[in-house]
Specification:
Layout: E1 2-7, E2 10-16, H1 21-37, H2 40-47, E3 49-55, E4 58-63, E5 70-73
Parallel strand pairs: 2-3
Antiparallel strand pairs: 1-2, 3-4, 4-5
């Protein structure tokens, strides 16, 4: 399944096998919180974010530079 979320005025594709409204809401809340209060490494990843993959209760944030990709817990 593929949906789009808006982060920092960019449309980012989100891929998942089973994506419901609760998971999507948790993802959006976690990303908004990390944009405001995240550490420098996470902010760098969010600036170059190209896609998000949700696996279970984790979101894998894929960035342009493979070294900047991170896993973010949703719960």
């Amino acid at each position: 399944m593929k949906v789009f979320v808006t982060i920092q005025n960019k449309q980012i594709p989100v891929f998942a096998d089973n994506l419901n409204k609760k998971t999507l809401k948790l993802l959006k809340l976690a990303l908004d919180k990390k944009v405001e209060n995240g550490r420098q490494t996470l902010k760098k990843c969010l600036q170059t974010l190209i896609s998000i993959e949700v696996i279970g209760c984790e979101a894998i944030l894929h960035s342009l530079n493979e070294k900047d990709s991170l896993a973010l817990s949703l719960y």
